[in-house]
Amino acid sequence: MVRMKRTLLGLLLMLLLVGGGTQVVAQSARPEGRVALESTSIAAGVGVDWGDGTLRFDGQDYKFSVSGLSLGDWGISKVNAVGNVYHLARPADLAGTYVAG
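RE: above sequence
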């Protein structure tokens, strides 16, 4: 249960980072796109996370994937998340390395 909460928190943090700002900014700006993400995590001390998502931007869908490692975690979890994307000029701006804490 703790692992699932950590993973969900990490994914929500990632979506916030992808959104480019805080909730205050998000409320005052118009979203440029929308992200849907499904992720799975398996951990026994050292864990792996992976998932696939879709960015809806300018009327088109762009597929992407996420992956990562974790330390000191135990359990299995699956998360589905959907959120708005802010301050994205083009789909390629989504690419990068993100860190969840």
